[in-house]
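Encode chain A's predicted structure.
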Amino acid sequence: CSGKTISVWHFLSIASGSLAELETQLLIGEQLDYFPSTTIEPILRLIAELRSKIDGLSKHLLNTPPQRRSS
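Encoded structure for chain A:
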């Protein structure tokens, strides 16, 4: 992996962690009756969709061989 690929992968890893944190906060808010589950269900679906896209891109980056620069 190139340095650029590693940087992008690191960014995606942070984004994935942020999604997990958001999901946790929403579930806690629901348990504390700050908002009903009908409010957070669409958001949780979006989080799952984004997580899937981030995971797919991360796997693609890790499986893509580095490109050689032409001289």
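The chain has a mean pLDDT of 89.
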